[in-house]
Write a structure and sequence with these properties.
mainly alpha; Ferritin; 2 domains; three-stranded mixed beta sheet; two-stranded antiparallel ribbon; metal-binding; Manganese catalase family protein; metal ion binding; Mn_catalase_C
């Protein structure tokens, strides 16, 4: 059950309208790493959680907080759109550099949403559920969550740097701090899970079914050997179960691909000497995708 409180989690009051900036702010609302993504990602991870109850409770705590962040940003966008269309801002956007980045305000803020936020990114692309990850493996999911919070905080910081509005900066500074907490939270949960199981996901696959001779080999598949200097090339592996080795000139271990020719009804490329279908005197094998070859 969810319960809505009328007050926002934190203030979302700009000092002045700025429809062009409202377009930019859409990125952290409906973009790939925006609040809608982490909101849906965490909620579905929590709904589907089959692990310890403390993890389910923690995931739903933060997922529910992200609903509040969506509301805050949507409210800020609505306030930034007060007084649109933004003639002054669009005049400023005629500068070639600014125009290339912003292109003026988002016309859908006027035409479609009536001066409100939309579930889209800063380019107007609709939010997509493919952005979110909920695999059922907590370690894999928590690492995805850490990445989402890292990318999200980076984008909020960049937006902070691109405005001088004290009200907008005040809200963004709150989100930046919460994203720091969430990154720390996921790192703590990841460390806890790694102590309980292997650092490699999934930890339940039998080791004897892996090709152990290549399980810890760093293969140099590019020109130069600078990559050999990294901790990933020598010494104990991160899962504590093997030793890294550096392979400077990896050799091919597989066969040369030699695919058989498709049947005539596929109409592929004939090999030299093969009689094209339809040639006088040739046997023509017919078929279709559903029924297979017909003689």
């Amino acid at each position: 059950m969810f319960y809505h409180v009328k007050e926002l989690q934190y203030n979302a009051k700009p000092e002045r309208p700025d429809p062009v900036y409202a377009k930019k702010l859409q990125e952290i609302l409906g973009g790939q790493f925006g609040e809608m993504t982490v909101m849906m990602q965490y909620l579905f991870q929590g709904f589907n959680c089959r692990g310890e109850k403390k993890y389910r409770d923690m995931i739903l705590d933060i997922g529910t907080e992200e609903i509040a962040h969506v509301e805050m940003i949507a409210t800020m966008i609505a306030h930034l759109l007060d007084g649109a269309p933004a003639k002054e801002q669009e005049e400023a956007a005629k500068d070639p550099v600014v125009e290339a980045v912003l292109g003026g305000m988002n016309p859908q803020h006027m035409i479609v949403s009536g001066l409100g936020a939309t579930p889209t990114d800063s380019a107007g692309y609709p939010w997509n559920s493919r952005y979110m990850i909920s695999s059922g493996n907590l370690l894999a999911d928590f690492r995805a969550n850490l990445n989402a919070e890292s990318q999200g905080r980076l984008q909020v910081v960049r937006l902070y740097e691109s405005t001088s509005d004290p009200g907008v900066r005040d809200m963004l500074s709150f989100l930046i701090a919460r994203d720091k907490m969430h990154q720390n939270q996921w790192m703590a949960a990841i460390e806890e899970l790694e102590q309980q199981q292997s650092a490699v996901v999934p930890s339940t696959f039998p080791k004897n079914l892996e090709k152990q001779e290549v399980a810890y080999s760093f293969m140099n598949f590019s020109k130069g050997t600078e990559s050999e200097k990294g901790s990933w090339a020598h010494g104990p592996a991160m899962d504590g179960q093997g030793e890294f080795e550096y392979i400077e000139n990896p050799e091919a271990m597989g066969q040369i691909p030699d695919l058989t020719q498709p049947p005539n009804y596929v109409h592929g490329t004939p090999t030299p000497g093969q009689m094209p279908p339809g040639t006088e005197g040739a046997e023509y094998e017919q078929g279709n995708m559903d029924q297979g070859p017909l003689n």
